[in-house]
Amino acid sequence: MEVSRLSTALIFLVPQVLAMVIEKYKLSEETAVELFYTSELYTVLEEEETKLWHLSALTLFELFQEERETGVINYPEEA
Prior knowledge:
single chain; mainly alpha; 4 helices
């Protein structure tokens, strides 16, 4: 089975984003994983056509933080 570029990107990006979530919000790994995987951001990130996986882990973390704090995500135009 061929691994897509999206899958490869997620393998590297998600742990980096989760580490930032854990550090910023002082959460357990389990809680951080649950919050991230149930976020709107992750749902959109999984859709290859959105190209969000081209963004850096820091930018994705900032979008997650925005969603968590405001309930809204303002996606960058380059996404």
